[in-house]
Automatic annotation (TrEMBL):
Annotated keywords: ATP-binding, Coiled coil, Leucine-rich repeat, Nucleotide-binding, Plant defense, Repeat
Coiled-coil parts of chain: 34-61
Name of protein: AAA+ ATPase domain-containing protein
Organism: Prunus persica
Taxonomy of the source species: Eukaryota, Viridiplantae, Streptophyta, Embryophyta, Tracheophyta
Pfam families to which the protein is assigned, alphabetical: LRR_RPS2, NB-ARC
Length: 1410
């Protein structure tokens, strides 16, 4: 019994003793455990490398890696991550050692080692790491060669990918002209999808093409799904394919090159009954995408911009482009320009240039310029056939003819659509077009078709289109062949280039039907001229002649259209010479536009069949009486003929077939309707009245309303009219025309599709006594009241009964009497789309009183209000409820405006809850000095919580500010104050939800202290793309009361802030992290701004987690084209002191100027893949940085791109001595000085400019890897006024390559700089051409001597491209480099300029070779 008790007691004592011993062993064997872990990790690392090499080899062979192997690699990676964390803690405990930390770390090391040695870790791991390769996926067998990550493509592709991720999206369309790169983009999208964590189980693709083959499409889809269709019947094949597709839970079907609607059910594609099936189609015809159900998911691919086109061209041409040959570069740039951004043209021509001698490049350029693409090898089968196919698929001969007419005009020309109407009518290409109006509508319909098929482009000018130059070249080629036989030539008038012989040879043929000569000098040496008996259309533009035009054109028997555009014909016509009319009886259209004309009476009389006659914008003082003999004339256009003073009486009344008369901004001298008439009498308005039976369109100025008392009444109520009354040709009227030229006078005839328009000037009461004016008012759709008076209430006095139900556009300017549009409870303005009020000085409100009719203003799209100084608010709540279609609102310079929307006394208190502006996309509020907010009605009567700002606490470390809260955000623990209207937000919380789709917001010179009060909102402004705030001098916060988890502002692309002097920070962290799509940021003249991002103490844990514990935020990670900081005298940093920024590699342009207190531009964590750089920095260097306590600032400027983390200085960091390392490769998770870091393939920095950054010490610190190519695109480096700069390149920096494209180095006013670069760096600067150094008081040498024995000073330095050196005002300069160097400047062309360098005795060493 005693033995049993002893045994039990011994075991009871043994277990605690063993437990205690094991715990003590962690302390005793601390060093041993760490060393053991090093050994096992080394062995594990070797094994991991072996397995990884096998995996890489299997992957290259297309094999599938086994799941067990992938799991093993994940487990091993997890072990190494834990080891990294342990290593970090080991180094940290050196500074605060304790028994507790030694115990914990030793125990952790032991546990990790045991896991590594556990046999279970290697279970399932064998020599065979992969299974045989499966059938290749679609992404692996297609090529996206030629796709470049251009910005114009990135946005479209990202939008498509976003749509594909949207669960509600079923079908997506990508549209663009032929050859623009749609298919290439789709292939790249397929490759991107493979890396998106199984977005689709299957991705299949079929090319539909112009000739639809259902069986082929079915086969292509089936084969991609590893399925065979052996059935002959298309319907059975479709049924089988339908069943197979439905088996895929998530499948993407890509239909490429769709020309017409494809019935998906005929193919077997389930659409509508399979939610997991998405369809992506490409087409040249936007209508096809809409017909197939794309609706809102149609994405357009445009041509490349000039920079992108040049990059693609250079990539295609490759080494054939000699950068040292200026002439060849110039020719290449011109060739690239001729391609006008069309990728297929750039690649085709680029590959052609590679295969030919460089001496032939000039020939290619000339052929492209002269529109002869079919001569260029390869062009015919690619570019030409691509666009020709689009042309062939047009619906009718009429639309094809309209398309070809566009090529008659110069490159990049804004082609007026009206020319197609007039030329088409003259050539009789329209069938069953009974009136000119019908023909015009038909042409505009055709233009819409051509634009949707990307054969024509939109123009910024009204009623104009543009034609892509490559499309134009193909159109010219098509038109030059049978049956069209067009000839289009452009020549240089001033240089007399492209002489006539080539022109004559090219066009001297029997069957030519249309000729367009642009900038042609018709030389006197021409004798025979052109013999084109079948010529129907002749257009001369900007041409000149020293002899008779008719001498140059023989046997023009069938000419139907003759156009002289922008020509001086006064001298020619004064000599009574005839035009090249051929047989006058055939001519239908004569256009003498923008010309200087003389007496044309002898030309007009013979044109008995003329139907269209235009003198638009020409200098002509009298319409010849012979026009009255043109009994078939259907259109007379004298628009904008400033000098037209005479129209003889009886001319207009004889034109009994006239359908359209345009006299806008032209003739004013109308004669009286009564009294005797003689040869000196002027045309009268009663002549116009007599025409109104057949007249369809009338544009006319009536200089005096008294002329209307005699009964000017149009007999046809369907006439479209554009009438201006009382607009006399006086100084005042000329002033209006001048204002129009400056862009502020809006009543000029807008084009030839105008709707009924009326402009009144003067006394309105007198107008209302005239029946004709009342008639025009009733039918007007566009009403302009300019400088009117005696009008107080617009509706009540002008159209009390009708309420302007037809009116679409209303413009009121310079009126001193109007107070309201309406005051009673009317039903009015149901169709009003646009309203403009400018200097309506007594306007109090748009509509006074409650608006009972829900249809009033319901179609209003745009309203602009300017200089209405009695206006206190724009809309009442009842009016605002109707504005569901409002898209644009612009209010400026209104001295008394307090609100945009206001609650009137009789309105419902809850009316504000029913307001929304779902279509408002643009809002501009500017120079409104009394504006309290967009809507402040409920805010004034209530209080709500906002957070007290505390800037001082925001700048302290996390440990010292746990009880403070930043003004920009809200948390449960924040300190709040009960305040009411004192918040004074431009967008108070009670109206934030009214603007769900706002895209552009411009705020200028306003007085509120908050822009967005987000109290109580978890989302807002998700569609906003541009935010511009300028002159908001009292604004302290752009964003305030940001709620936890708030979502919004994520689509902002442009952020511009200027002259906001009360702002101390740009945005709180909660908003900053949402701004992931920013492309342009500009902050200027905010004198109190101290930081860009401000984080509250309560958010710091979130920041730590979101940055992976590194403390480094990636600044605007997606894309930042431009980042400008200027004139920020208080800016010290970008983020809180405890955190740092890493710059996105996609940053293109950065400019930091006059920010004297800026301490740092950011930090970047060292990549795991980079070797630790700690050993490269001495303790003295680190200590010096610590003691200085100051950061650095840099300013960068780039023309082509920016891709590196900018320069920073390290605030503090531990010593690097006794650095503990347990991992087999150095991994350092400590935040290191990033400065301008190692570049990568995506880096684009070309031009770096740093100016007036007073604390900057070093520019470049490069962390080297085996493949380091540091800043390989950098071309120009400019450093100006940097007083603390001690090194451009970090001291003792050693990189194997980089800086190889640096061309120019300029340093000015850097008084702490002793040399420019070391000998090691000098060897990298193989492209350096220019060195300019001035006003650097400490500069001793240009090339510094080696320090620390890093390299021999007895070395050879060669600058192969250096051709210019300028050294000025360098009082300490002793020599260019060490006398022991051998210096070679083989390209030196300009004498070295040395000025005011008193210590310079020996400029260069004896061993100098020039």
């Amino acid at each position: 019994m005693e033995e049993i008790c002893i045994s039990i007691a011994s075991k009871i004592v043994e277990k605690p003793v063993a437990l205690i011993g094991r715990q003590l062993s962690y302390l005793i064997y601390y060093d041993s455990n760490i060393e053991s872990l090093k050994d096992v990790l080394k062995n594990l690392d070797d094994k991991k490398n072996d397995v990884q090499r096998s995996v890489d080899a299997a992957t290259r062979n297309g094999a599938t890696i086994k799941d067990q192997v992938q799991s093993w690699l994940k487990d091993v990676s997890k072990i190494f991550r834990e080891a990294e964390e342990l290593q970090t803690k080991l180094n940290m405990q050196r500074w605060c050692p304790s028994l507790k930390s030694r115990y914990s770390l030793s125990r952790k090391a032991k546990k990790i080692a045991q896991r590594v040695l556990d046999p279970k870790l290697d279970e399932g791991l064998s020599n065979n790491v992969a299974n045989p390769a499966p059938v290749p996926q679609l992404g692996s067998i297609i090529s996206s060669e030629g796709f470049k990550g251009f910005e114009s493509r990135k946005d479209v592709m990202n939008d498509v990918l976003s749509a594909l991720r949207n669960e509600k999206t079923r079908i997506i369309g990508i549209c663009g002209m032929g050859g623009v790169g749609k298919t290439t983009m789709v292939r790249e999208i397929i490759k991107r999808l493979q890396g998106t964590n199984k977005l689709f189980d299957d991705v299949v693709m079929s090319t539909v093409s112009a000739t639809v083959n259902i069986r082929k499409i079915q086969t292509e889809i089936a084969e991609s799904l590893d399925m065979k269709l052996v059935e002959e019947s298309e319907s059975i094949r479709a049924q089988r394919l339908h069943e197979r597709i439905k088996q895929s839970k998530r499948i993407l079907i890509i239909l490429d090159d769709v020309w017409s609607e494809l019935k998906l059910q005929d193919v077997g594609i389930p659409f509508g009954d399979h939610e997991g099936c998405k369809i992506l189609l490409t087409s040249r015809n936007e209508e096809v995408c809409k017909t197939m159900g794309c609706k809102d998911n149609i994405f357009r691919v445009q041509a490349l911009n000039k920079e992108e086109a040049w990059e693609l061209f250079k990539a295609t041409v490759g080494e054939s482009l000699d950068n040292n040959n200026p002439h060849l570069l110039h020719v290449a740039e011109m060739i690239a320009d001729e391609c006008k951004g069309l990728p297929i043209a750039i690649i085709t021509i680029g590959k052609t240039l590679v295969s030919i001698d460089k001496n032939e490049w000039d020939t290619i350029r000339e052929q492209l310029k002269n529109s002869l693409p079919e001569i260029i090898p390869g062009m015919e089968q690619s570019v030409y056939s691509c666009i020709k196919l689009s042309y062939d698929k047009l619906d009718s001969g009429e639309v094809k003819s309209c398309f070809l007419l566009c090529c008659l005009f110069p490159e990049d020309y804004d082609v007026p659509i009206e020319y197609m109407v007039r030329y088409g009518l003259g050539r009789e290409i329209f069938e069953n077009a009974n009136t000119i109006e019908n023909a015009r509508k038909r042409v505009h319909f055709f233009v819409g078709q051509l634009k949707r098929r990307f054969l024509l482009l939109d123009s910024e000018k009204e009623e104009c289109i543009k034609m892509h130059d490559i499309v134009r070249d193909v159109a010219i080629s098509i038109a030059s062949k049978d049956p069209h036989r067009f000839m289009v030539r452009s020549f240089d008038v001033e240089g007399g280039g492209g002489g006539w012989p080539g022109l004559q040879k090219a066009t001297n043929q029997e069957h030519c039907s249309a000729i367009s000569l642009i900038d042609v000098k018709l030389d006197k040496d021409i004798i025979d001229g052109l013999e084109c008996p079948k010529l129907q259309l002749l257009q001369l533009r900007n041409s000149s002649s020293s002899s008779e035009y008719s001498n140059h054109f023989k046997r023009l028997r069938e000419l139907k259209v003759l156009a002289f555009l922008r020509m001086d014909m006064s001298g020619y016509l004064a000599s009574k010479r005839s035009l090249p009319l051929g047989e006058p009886k055939y001519l239908h259209t004569l256009c003498l536009e923008d010309c200087k004309l003389g007496d044309i009476s002898h030309v007009i009389g013979e044109l008995e069949n003329l139907e269209i006659l235009s003198f638009a914008r020409s200098q002509i003082n009298k319409l010849p009486r012979e026009i009255g003999l043109l009994h078939r004339l259907r259109m007379l256009d004298a628009t904008d003929c400033d000098g037209l003073e005479e129209i003889p009486h009886g001319v207009l009344s004889n034109l009994r077939r006239l359908e359209e008369l345009y006299m806008a901004e032209s003739f004013f001298n109308w004669g009286p309707a009564t009294g005797s008439k003689d040869e000196t009498s002027m045309a009268s308005l009663d002549e116009v009245t007599s025409l109104s039976v057949h007249l369809k369109v009338l544009a006319i100025n009536i200089p005096d309303r008294q002329m209307l008392h005699n009964g000017f009444l149009l007999k046809n109520q369907h006439i479209r009219f554009h009438v201006s009354i009382n607009a006399r040709r006086t100084y005042y009227y000329k002033m209006l025309r001048y204002l129009f030229a400056k862009g502020s006078f809006e009543n000029r005839m807008p084009g030839y599709l105008f709707e009924n328009s009326l402009m009144l000037l003067g006394d309105v009461k007198e107008y209302l006594e005239i029946g004709a004016v009342r008639y025009f008012l009733k039918l007007s759709k566009n009403l302009s009241l300019h400088h009117t008076y005696n009008l107080k209430y617009v509706i009540e006095e002008l159209d009390d009964e009708g309420g302007f139900q037809h009116l679409k556009v209303l413009s009121i300017e310079y009126d001193n009497n109007i107070e309201y549009l309406m005051t009673r409870q009317h039903s009015a303005f149901r169709n009003l789309k646009s309203a403009t009020f400018k200097e309506v000085n007594k306007l109090k409100v748009v509509c006074h009183g409650k608006l009972p009719d829900k249809r009033s203003f319901m179609n209003l799209r745009s309203i602009a209000i300017n200089h209405c100084n009695e206006l206190k608010y724009v809309f009442s709540l009842s009016v605002a409820q109707n504005l569901v279609q409002l898209q644009s609102l612009n209010v400026k310079n209104c001295a008394k405006v307090e609100e945009i929307i206001s609650k009137e006394r009789m309105e419902d208190d809850n009316a504000s809850h029913r307001i929304s502006f779902p279509r408002l996309t643009f809002l501009k509020l500017s120079f409104l000095q009394k504006l309290h907010g967009f809507y402040t009605g409920n805010q004034r009567d209530s209080t709500y919580e906002i957070i007290k700002p505390n800037y001082e606490s925001a700048n302290k470390t996390k440990e010292t500010r746990n009880d403070n809260q930043v003004a920009g955000s809200t948390s449960s623990g924040s300190k709040v104050a009960q305040v009411g209207a004192s918040c004074n937000a431009l967008f108070p919380s009670n109206c934030i939800s009214w603007l769900p789709n706002l895209e552009g917001l411009v705020l200028k010179s306003l007085t509120s202290n908050v822009v967005f009060d987000l109290e109580g909102h978890d989302s807002a402004f998700s569609q906003l793309q541009a935010l511009i705030a300028d002159g908001l001098d009292e604004v302290e916060h752009l964003w305030k009361n940001v709620q936890p988890g708030f979502q919004g502002f994520q689509n902002v692309r442009t952020l511009s802030i200027g002259a906001c002097n009360s702002m101390k920070y740009l945005c709180p962290y909660e908003i900053y992290k949402l701004l992931m799509n920013l492309e342009e940021v500009e902050i200027n003249k905010c004198e109190n701004m101290e930081t860009i991002v401000l984080a509250a103490a309560s958010t710091e844990d979130n920041i730590h987690d979101e940055t992976g514990g590194s403390g480094a935020m990636t600044l605007f990670p997606k894309l930042l084209n431009r980042f400008n900081l200027q004139n920020l005298s208080s800016l010290e940093r970008f983020c809180p002191d405890a955190y740092s920024f890493a710059w996105s590699s996609s940053t293109r342009i950065m400019n930091v100027r006059r920010c004297p207190k800026l301490k740092t531009l950011g930090f970047a964590p060292v990549s795991k893949k980079l070797p630790a750089v700690a050993k490269n920095l001495s303790d003295d260097h680190v200590r010096g940085r610590e003691e200085s306590g100051s950061g650095c600032a840099s300013s960068t400027r780039s023309r082509s791109g920016f891709g590196c983390a900018p320069l920073v200085c390290l605030r503090s960091r531990p010593s690097t001595r006794n650095f503990t390392q347990i991992l087999p490769r150095p991994v350092n998770r400590e935040v290191m000085p990033a400065n301008l870091q190692t570049s990568s393939a995506s880096d684009n920095l070309e031009d770096l400019y740093v100016n007036r950054c007073d604390l900057l010490e070093v520019i470049f610190l490069v962390q080297e890897t085996p493949s380091t190519q540091a800043f390989d695109k950098l071309r120009e480096l400019n450093l100006v006024e940097l007083p603390m700069l001690s090194h451009i390149w970090e001291k003792d920096l050693q990189v194997s390559s980089g800086f190889g494209n640096l061309r120019s180095l300029r340093v000015v006013d850097c008084d702490n700089l002793r040399y420019l670069f070391s000998q090691h760096i000098a060897k990298l600067l193989t492209s350096l051409e220019t060195i300019c150094v001035s006003f650097c008081n400490a500069m001793e040498k240009i090339v510094g001597e080696a320090e620390g024995g890093g390299e021999s000073i007895e070395d050879e330095l060669t600058f192969p491209q250096l051709n210019f050196i300028q050294l000025r005002y360098l009082p300490a300069l002793e020599s260019f480099c060490s006398q022991a160097c051998t210096l070679k400047w083989p390209a030196l062309e300009v004498l070295i300029i040395v000025d005011e360098c008193p210590k310079l005795k020996v400029f260069a060493p004896e061993s100098l070779y020039v």
